Amino acid sequence: MDFGDSPEEAEFRRRLRAWLVDNNPGLPASSTSDEYWEGQPAWHQALYDAGFFGLSWPTDVGGQGLPSVYDVIVDDELAAAGAPPRPSLGYLVLGILHHANEDIRRRFLPGIVNGRDRWCQGFSEPDAGSDLANVRTRAARAGAGYVITGHKVWTSYSDLADWCLVLARTDPDVPKHKGISAFAVPMHQPGLEQRPLKMINGITREFGEVTFDGARVPAANMIGDPGDGWALAMTVVSHEREPGELGYVSRYRKVVSELAGLVRAEPERYSAEQRRDLAWAAVEAEMLRQHVCRRLSDRYDGITHGPEGSVDKLLMTGAEQAVGHAALAIGGLPTGAATASNSAADPDAHHDDDTWLRVYLYSRAQSVMGGTAQIQRNLVATRIMGLPRS
Fold first, then answer.
1. What pLDDT digit, counting tens, does each position of 161-176 carry?
2. How far apart are CA 24 and CA 82, in angstroms?
C-alpha cells in the first residue's frame, strides 16, 4: 500500500493547512467540556463552507464525491494543528443514504451534511442498550402519521438537535427484530422532552435522555418501509464502530501530541514509567491510524466489512483507554484531587485545570458506548471465527 499523497491530494493538504492557520477555533481537548460541544455546530459549518467536510459523500446531498482518502487527510491535518476532529455524522448520512427513498434523502441529507440542521440518534433505551432489538418505544399509526411513546437514553447531542433518528416498534406481534421502524422525528414539538445527563467528567451537553409522550411524526418521515428499522440500525452501528468514519484517530493523535508537548517542555519532571505510558498511547494511536488506512485500501478494492466492525471497535477501545491512561499519567490531577491510590499521576503535580482527568474519565466509557466490549467479542467469536454460541 502506498500512503503517499498524489499531486491533487498534496495540493488539498496544503490548502487545508493554510486555512487552519487562521481558522482553528482553539476549542478545548475534545469531549472534555461543555464549551467544546457548544462550539461544534459553528466548527462543522466552518469546515463545510471552506470545502473540508463531507468530502466523500455524494454531490447530490452536499458532498464532493471524492475518495475517502481526503477525509483521512483532513483528520491528519486537524490532529497536527491541534484542531477539533471533524463532526461525527457519517453513520447518520450512510444510514439514510442506504435505506431512505429519494424524498427523504433530498429533504434531510443536505442539512445534515452542511451542518445547518442538527440531528441526534434515538436508539438506546434503559432496557435496550447492547440488546438494541429490545426497543420498547412505540409508534402507533394515527391518521396521516404516527404517535410515539417511549424513552430514549444516552442520546448524543439531543439538547442541540432539530431532528432525531428514532427507532420505534410499529408491530409488536412479530419477532422483535422485524417489528421496528425508523423515523425522522422533529425535536421541537409538544409531547417531547429532552433532559441532559451529567457525566462523571462534568459534561452536561453531550448526552441526554428523551421522553416521547404523544409526540407526532408524519408517515412520510419513515425511513424505509415499515419493519425496516433493524436493517437501518445495523448499517448505522456498523459505520458507528469504524474509527475512520468518526475522526477518532484525529482526536487521539491530538491528545497524544499535547501530552508530548508537556514532556518536551519539562522532561525532568516525568518518570520513565510516565514516559512509557505516553509512548504506548502513541503506539496505540498510530496502530489505529494504520488500521484505518488498511480499511480504506479495502474500500478501494471493493471490499466491504460487516461484523469486522467489531474488531475496529475493540481496537478503538484499546487506543482510547491507552490515551486516557497517558492523559492521567502525564497531565496529572487537579489541585486537591491527587490520592495515594492514583500512582499513575505525578504526586507532586499541582493543577487547577482538570482537562486531563476529564480525558481519562471519558475514556473509561469507550468499552461500553456503541456496543460493549463483551458484545463485540461475542460477535467476533460467532460471526467471524464461527464458534458456537454456547
1. 999 999 999 999 999 9
2. 8
240 tagged catalytic: yes
CA 239 to chain centre: 10
First to last CA, the chain: 40
CA angle 44, 166, 205 (to 5 degrees): 45
- Which residues does 202 contact at the CB level (< 8 Å), separation at least 6? 33, 34, 354, 358
Catalytic pick from 240, 284, 308, 320?
A: 240
Q: How far apart are CA 267 and CA 260, in angstroms?
A: 10
- Residue whose C-alpha cell is 490548502: 15
Tell me the per-residue pLDDT of 40-97, one tens digit each, with 9 for 90 and over: 899 999 999 999 999 989 999 999 999 888 988 898 888 788 888 888 888 899 899 9
Integer Cα distance of 370 and 382 in angstroms: 19
Rounded to whole angstroms, the Cα distance separating 51 from 212 reads 37
How many CB atoms are located within 10 Å of the residue 144 CB? Answer: 9
